[in-house]
Amino acid sequence: MKLIIKLLLTAIAVVVLAKILPGVSVASYGTAIIVAIVIALLRLIVKPILVILTLPITIVTFGLFLLIINAIIILMADYFIGGFNVNSIWWALLFSLLLSLFQSLLFSFLPEDK
Length: 114
Description:
It comes from Aequorivita sublithincola (strain DSM 14238 / LMG 21431 / ACAM 643 / 9-3). This is Putative membrane protein. The chain crosses the membrane at residues 28-46, 53-77, 89-110. Pfam families: Phage_holin_4_2. InterPro entries: Phage_holin_4_2 (IPR007165). This protein is mainly α and 114 residues long. The chain has one domain (2-107). Helices cover 75% and strands 5% of the residues. It has helices at 2-20, 29-53, 55-60, 65-80, 89-107, and strands at 24-26, 84-86. Strands 1-2 form a two-stranded antiparallel sheet. The chain starts with a helix and ends in a 7-residue tail after the last helix.
């Protein structure tokens, strides 16, 4: 149940960010839910592979390259989902930063499991 709530909160954050950022657009609320699911799956499957492959660059940049990996994951979601559009890697970078900020803010209101 908590996973569904987190996905719905992420979808709300995607819609809000699409309204705020001119370089990002989402066709509908249903598309935002699909975007939240695809981003969660890409973070679960693709991100660990990219982190391992780019470990030397990540170490040299003191972890800042992880921001680029997050932007690449957003661009991959843009590629896979028809109603989700991100204009450039810079918009993807800003979107991923703000999405992480919104997620941490929204998830802080959820009760913790004991």
